[in-house]
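// run 5 | inverse folding | seed 20
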C-alpha cells in the first residue's frame, strides 16, 4: 500500500509520534509520502527579523499568508529548515528519507498568484506583489522513484514557478491531495493539532466522525472555520481525484496514523 500523510507546521503539532510510527510502518513494508507545512518556523523567522506576519482572509472565507519578495525568501528558508528537522527525526527512529526540493528535483510546479483579494471591514481590497502559488502539476514518477529506493519522500509546501524558476509558497494540504493522486495512494491522512472536523471548535465531543453522517460536503463546510476550511477543501479535491480513503485526524496522539484508521478522526470517504 502507498499512503500520503501531511503534518502541519504550526505550533502545537507534534513530530515524534508520527516519525516513530512512519519508521515502523515503512520497515514493515508499507510505503509513505510525507508532506509538511512551515507556518510555525516562518512566523518565528518573521518575528526575529522584523518582518510583518500578514494573514489575509479572502471574500470566500479562506485564510492565507501574503508573501512578498522578502517573505518568499523567508518562507523557503522555513520550509527547508522544517524539512531538515523532519528528516533528522526520521533518522533518529531508523528511517531514511529524501527531501524533494522543487528547485532541484522539479517534481512540484505552481502558477504564481500575483494578486490576493482581502476581505476586511466589509470591503474587498486587492493586494499585489504576492509570491504564493496554485499547484499546476505534481510528477508522481519523481516521488515513486524515491519510494522504490526504500526511502520516505519529504515534500515541502513549495512549488516551482516554471516562468521565474523560483519556488513559491503553496498550500501543504492541497499539495498532499495532489501528491496522493500522483502516486495513486490508497490513503491520505491530514494531521493537525485538533481531533478532526468539529461542529464546535471548542468542543472535542462535537467531532464529526464521517462525511456520510452530515450528508454533503456543503454541510461539512458550514462547520469548517479558520485553517480547517482549507484542509476540508484539500480533502474534497482528493475525493474528486478518486483517492479512496481520506482522513482528518489528530497528530498529537500516539500512533496518529493508526488512530485515524480506527475512526478516531473524521473519515471523508465512507
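// decoded
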Amino acid at each position: 500500500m502507498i499512503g500520503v500523510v501531511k503534518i502541519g507546521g504550526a505550533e502545537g503539532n507534534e513530530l515524534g509520534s508520527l516519525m516513530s510510527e512512519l519508521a515502523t510502518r515503512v520497515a514493515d513494508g508499507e510505503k509513505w509520502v510525507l508532506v509538511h507545512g512551515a507556518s510555525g518556523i516562518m512566523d518565528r523567522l518573521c518575528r526575529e527579523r522584523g518582518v510583518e506576519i500578514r494573514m489575509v482572509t479572502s471574500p470566500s472565507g479562506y485564510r492565507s499568508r501574503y508573501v512578498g519578495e522578502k517573505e518568499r525568501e523567508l518562507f523557503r528558508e522555513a520550509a527547508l529548515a522544517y524539512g531538515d528537522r523532519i528528516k533528522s527525526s526520521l533518522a533518529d527512529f531508523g528511517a531514511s528519507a529524501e527531501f524533494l526540493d522543487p528547485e532541484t528535483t522539479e517534481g512540484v510546479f505552481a502558477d504564481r498568484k500575483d494578486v490576493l483579494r482581502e476581505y476586511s471591514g466589509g470591503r474587498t481590497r486587492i493586494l499585489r506583489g504576492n509570491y504564493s502559488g496554485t499547484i499546476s502539476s505534481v510528477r508522481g514518477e519523481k516521488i515513486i522513484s524515491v519510494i522504490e529506493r526504500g526511502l520516505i519522500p519529504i515534500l515541502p509546501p513549495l512549488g516551482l514557478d516554471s516562468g521565474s524558476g523560483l519556488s513559491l509558497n503553496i498550500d501543504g494540504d492541497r499539495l498532499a491531495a495532489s501528491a496522493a493522486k500522483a502516486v495513486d495512494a490508497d490513503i491520505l491522512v491530514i494531521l493537525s493539532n485538533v481531533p478532526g472536523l468539529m461542529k464546535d471548535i471548542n468542543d472535542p465531543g462535537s467531532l464529526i466522525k464521517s462525511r456520510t453522517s452530515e450528508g454533503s460536503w456543503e454541510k461539512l463546510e458550514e462547520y469548517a472555520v479558520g485553517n480547517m476550511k482549507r484542509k476540508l477543501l484539500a480533502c474534497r479535491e482528493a475525493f474528486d481525484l478518486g483517492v479512496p480513503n481520506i482522513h482528518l485526524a489528530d497528530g498529537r496522539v500516539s500512533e496518529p496514523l493508526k488512530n485515524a484508521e480506527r475512526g478516531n478522526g473524521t473519515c471523508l470517504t465512507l
